[in-house]
Specification:
By secondary structure, this protein is α/β, with parallel strands linked by helices. The chain has helices at residues 13-24, 26-33, 64-68, 85-95, 105-121, 138-145, 160-172, 176-185, 194-197, 200-214, 233-241, 303-324, 374-384, 414-425; strands at residues 3-9, 36-43, 60-61, 75-78, 99-102, 126-127, 151-157, 216-217, 224-225, 244-254, 259-269, 281-288, 292-299, 348-349, 359-368, 389-394, 403-409, 412-413, 435-439. The model has no long low-confidence stretch (mean pLDDT 94). Bound molecules: L-homoserine (HSE).
Length: 445
């Protein structure tokens, strides 16, 4: 049986999971692929800490270049993360004509186009299923299963850490920091959890999905990003009372002229299936012209779910290697699926709609001085800015303090909402900046 040699770079949570799964599932993988997957190297600077795996002599090493430059290695699996050495190692591997698999969403979101170009120049394959949604097969779904569709929109919960924190606060009323520490202990969070809680991890994932879905190059800096660190239990409680759940959503809409791509805390109707995606689970709805709605749900983070997605790419590449070994030596190797789903010549640069142009409903929470006429000033400003109010509530009045006022607007253009909030914030009667959460009433299912 043909042997395919694999090297894993980075033996942290996911790297350890991939090594374990690869070793434990040898017979199953062989029976499905028709080749033997041999773990030739696992590379990490720390080769002392016990990973609970018994490696053969010479497998667990600390020199990445030994693996990358070894002519017998077929597939390099980059699981170091970040944009430093990980990028150098990936490029060096591709230039050495090796196939590469990675879970590194930050790197792909920022440098994916360059990496794909270099992969194509060297006839190498590049797999990144594990970069979005953990074990949910979302890359393959968009790129392969929905090939005959125009994709209209993507709406997803793509960060397990944030979903875990929001679920804990909502169900147990626990503090933000306590929930974050638990998510870190469970191995969901990034090395720098700022990327999770401030929405950047979700934005990286959204950039990858929108590129594949619409055949476009995206500048990650154009994606509007807000995280969950300003969400309070008060907002979560108010949302519940009014039939909403707060989720950190990654939203992209394929409008005819401009594409929307944004990440922010969002109130969604509690009856929507995404509102019931709890803990570290991820989920995604894809609206497309032939299929209508497709929904995926799965573990978005963690050792084995992510390892499973990495193995799916290794298996695809191994199958390609098996096909190519039967070609004439002068034929160009076959990579059956274009890395970005579209043929390179059809990938376009498309601009993303500025957040000020979006049109949706808004939740606004204000702390207002408790005296006559304040509410009429606030509603007057909203009215002058063309914003129509759906409901206003005052709740939690305390002696001598500002009173919390909650409002829900009808659909409005964000630019007008921002102008109104600026004017409201300047009132003497408003001691703190208002909190605003966008509402998505009409996610299709
Ligand atoms: N930090 C990520 C999350 C891991 O919490 O979802 C998976 O990409």
């Amino acid at each position: 049986m043909k042997q395919i040699n694999i090297a894993i770079l980075g033996c942290g949570v996911v790297g350890t999971g991939v090594a374990k799964l690869l070793m434990e599932k040898q017979p199953l993988l062989e029976s499905k692929i028709g080749a033997s997957l041999n773990l030739k190297y696992v590379v990490d600077l720390d080769t002392k800490t016990d990973r609970g795996i018994r490696f053969k002599d010479g497998v667990f090493i600390s020199d990445a270049t030994k693996a990358i430059d070894d002519p017998t290695v077929d597939i390099i699996v980059e699981l170091i993360g970040g944009k430093g050495v990980a990028k150098d190692f990936i490029l060096r591997a591709l230039k050495n004509k090796k196939h590469v698999v990675t879970a590194n969403k930050a790197l792909i979101a920022e440098f994916g186009n360059d990496i794909v170009k270099i992969a194509a120049e060297h006839n190498s394959d590049f797999g990144f299923e594990a970069s979005v949604g953990g074990c949910m097969p979302v890359i393959k779904t968009i790129r392969e299963s929905l090939v005959a569709n125009r994709i209209n929109s993507i709406t997803g919960i793509l960060n397990g850490t944030c979903n875990y924190i929001l679920t804990k606060i909502s169900n147990e009323g626990c503090l933000f920091d306590v929930a974050l520490k638990e998510a870190q202990a469970k191995g969901y969070a990034e090395a720098d959890p700022f990327l999770d809680v401030e929405g950047h991890d979700s934005a990286h994932k959204l950039a990858i999905l929108a590129s594949l879905a619409y055949g476009m190059r995206i500048n990650i800096k154009d994606i509007h990003v807000e995280g969950i660190s300003k969400i309070t239990p008060v907002d979560i409680e108010f949302a519940k009372d009014f039939g909403y759940t707060i989720k950190l959503l990654a939203i992209s809409k394929n409008n005819t002229d401009k594409v929307e791509a944004r990440v922010h805390p969002t109130m969604i109707p509690t009856v929507h299936p995404l509102a019931h995606v709890n803990g570290s689970m991820n989920a995604l709805t894809i609206n497309a012209d032939a299929t209508g709605e497709t929904m995926l749900y799965g573990a978005g983070a963690g050792m084995m779910p992510t390892a499973s997605a990495v193995l799916s790419d290794i298996a695809d590449i191994a199958r390609n290697i098996m096909v190519n070994q039967n070609l004439n030596s002068d034929s160009k190797p076959v990579t059956r699926i274009p890395i970005l789903g579209f043929q390179d010549s059809n990938v376009r640069q498309i601009s993303i709609m500025p957040i000020t142009e979006i049109n949706t409903c808004y939740y606004i929470r204000l702390a207002a001085a408790d005296r006559p006429g304040v509410l009429s000033k606030i509603t007057g400003i909203l009215g002058n800015c063309g914003i129509s109010i759906q409901s206003v509530h005052q709740k939690g009045r305390q002696a001598n303090g500002p009173v919390p006022v909650f409002m829900i607007t009808h659909r409005a253009v964000e630019r007008d909402v921002q102008q109104a909030l600026k004017e409201i914030s300047e009132l003497d009667a408003i001691p703190e900046n208002p909190v605003v959460i966008r509402i998505e009433e009409d996610i299709t299912t």
